[in-house]
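In the design runs reported in the main text, the only information available to the sequence generator was the tokenized backbone. The following block is the verbatim input for one such run; it is reproduced so that readers can re-run the procedure and compare outputs position by position.
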């Protein structure tokens, strides 16, 4: 049986520091047919010059947003499985082959995901993300997936819709939450990639905005008219979970007063969520620590796959 085709879309902007090792880890994947499409939003730091050394299609569209680039790449391909990739992360050898085989072997699953090492700016492993099996009930409350480890079945996207191009933050939570409405996810217990977190990443530079984006994702989702009664039952816990994440972002970003307000709002929405999610105890612990630590230090050991590019 031939392999299902896979398309990986890379939206980039000024990734010269990391793009070489990132693209090489993708090109080294032992899988075919594999389509790679790079959208560059107008890099000026040498990213394009580096990419010219590699056999990849690069489309330069200044000002093109990340979510718009992903959607554009997915729409132009006929690949059965799709995903996106960042310019500062690294695939482990054989990842795409293992993910594609798992998704092919489980025809009912619409998404496959796995585990990831966390690396810092210099490429040192500083943690590990192992989210375990994930259902709609889980995603409604917290986003612990690692988007960089996923493959998505095209037929599942036809049910859920693609990336919301209006979103700057938590767009992956939004997408996978919508997908989980319709299809089960398959979890593979292996380390698929190295996910880089550093002070210059989009979310670490905009922590409070990232938290607000998460609240908007979850609140907007539970206003959808197509939810089942069972799905609507998760609304209060979901709103509480999003506010716990926002409180985490605020306290890490040094906005302790705002973090307290968000934490209390989460308690009003659904108090039990603060004790049944991974975020709750960590938020409470940070709120009780009377010092502010740099975001990049705190995220060296973060257990959650919440932050997006």
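Verbatim output:
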């Amino acid at each position: 049986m031939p392999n299902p085709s896979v398309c990986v879309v890379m939206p980039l902007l000024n990734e010269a520091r990391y793009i070489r090792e990132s693209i090489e880890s993708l090109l080294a994947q032992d899988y075919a047919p594999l389509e790679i499409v790079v959208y560059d939003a107008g890099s000026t730091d040498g990213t394009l010059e580096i990419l010219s050394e590699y056999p990849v299609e690069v489309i330069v569209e200044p000002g093109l947003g990340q979510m718009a680039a992903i959607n554009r790449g997915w729409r132009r391909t006929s690949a059965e499985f799709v995903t996106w990739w960042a310019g500062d992360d690294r695939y482990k050898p054989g990842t795409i082959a293992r993910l594609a085989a798992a998704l092919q072997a489980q025809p009912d699953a619409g998404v496959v995901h796995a585990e990831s090492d966390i690396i810092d700016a210099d490429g040192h492993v500083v943690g590990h993300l192992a989210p375990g099996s994930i259902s709609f009930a889980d995603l409604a409350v917290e986003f612990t997936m690692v988007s960089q480890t996923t493959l998505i079945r095209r037929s599942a996207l036809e049910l859920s819709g693609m990336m919301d191009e209006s979103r700057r933050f938590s767009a992956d939570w939004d997408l996978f939450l919508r997908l989980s409405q319709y299809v089960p996810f398959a979890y593979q217990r292996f380390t698929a990639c190295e996910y880089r977190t550093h002070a210059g990443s989009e979310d670490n530079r905009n922590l409070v905005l990232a938290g607000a984006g998460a609240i908007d994702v979850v609140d907007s989702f539970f206003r959808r008219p197509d939810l089942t009664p069972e799905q609507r039952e998760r609304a209060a816990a979901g709103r509480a979970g999003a506010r716990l994440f926002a409180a985490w972002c605020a306290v890490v970003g040094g906005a302790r007063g705002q973090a307290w307000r968000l934490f209390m709002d989460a308690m009003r929405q659904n108090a039990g969520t603060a004790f049944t999610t991974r975020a709750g105890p960590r938020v409470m612990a940070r709120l009780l620590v009377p010092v502010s630590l740099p975001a990049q230090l705190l995220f060296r050991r973060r257990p959650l796959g919440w932050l997006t590019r």
